[in-house]
Amino acid sequence: MDIATGADGGPARQPGSQTALRSLNVQRVVGMLTTAGASTQAELARHTGLSTATVSSIVRSMIDRGIVTTSPTTSSGRRAVLVRLEDRGIVPVGIDLGRTHVRVCLATLGYEVIAERSMALPHERRPHEGIDAAAGLLADLLAESSVPASAVVGVGVGIPGPIDNRSGHVLEGPLWPEWDDLDPQRALEERLGVPVFLDNDANLGALAEVTWGPHSAVENLVFLKLGSGIGCGLIVGGQPYHGHLGIAGEIGHSPISDTGPLCRCGNRGCLEMAASTSTMIDLLDRGTTPRLTTDDIVRQALAGDTATLRVIEDAGVATGRALASVVNLINPQVVVVGGPLAVLDEVLLAPVRRGLLRYAIAVAGQTTRLVVSSLDDRAEVLGAAALVLRHPVLG
Known about the structure:
Number of helices: 13
Helix content: 25-40%
Radius of gyration: 22 Å
Strand order of the largest sheet: 6-5-4-7-8
Distance between the termini: 16 Å
Strand content: 15-25%
Number of strands: 13
Shape: globular
């Protein structure tokens, strides 16, 4: 029997059932087609370590499901079968269900976006309103892209809150009291009618950076999301790291001052109270109608507005101070800053870097690359789509 192997050539961690094993082997073939492009069945067997009989069986099943197409070719002077991914035969979907927005994307197995759209959500909303909005956007994108609903193999969903590994529920009731009595995975699956895979949005941002972004070779990475909330996703040893319960990376509720303002989590002086876009808006808004937005902050900062730049300076240094503890602890190769302020680039990075260098161990701060995300504010939804393909959904 063929065994799917890990990146190091050893056996990959996997469930013991035949179905799960076959699914992992299918994903291995798909991964090879994604990275190498169209390949013969013999090449797929050689590079995946699977037997030619297993590859042939997998290819036949993928043809039936519309995942691949085949055509005759020659290889080393012999007749062969060339296998090519059919990009829209299987479509993973990503949903970023934020506090004030929802974004949906359709992707291919080759990590290309078919379609994507976002919309604003009211601040005071119930969970089902966000779920309904996401379902509506998904239906619209499928129709506009001529992708049949049957092609959707699963939906990854990012939520801006810690998710309990044991139950799948959102942790920390005071942060998200409206989610207390809701099983979000079940609610989403009932509404969407397909398998749903749930994770914290910052974790998905980190996953996107090592799949869609330019950091695929990075073993240790921190993804810092700055928005209306502040989150931190971790890649440790090349794999997403969630911690014991699933709350690793909750940097937004790390106190940076004992006498700071009271946070909704119950602590004082949390980073979120000093550096979130919500706090920036509160500091800069002068009673204008309509109320100041994050886009306004970006526009004013790029225009050189003194007050806006001072607010970003203070927020950046505070962020760097909190980030220093993370850098000291896991010693990442790179810290990627994402979220709606990432477009500010060095305007934002410069004060974050000053705070990091001031409070981190010198060698750790000096050797950690600090960059903005090349995915802008799309990292979370792209990571959600990538999350689908980390589960046995193709077998």
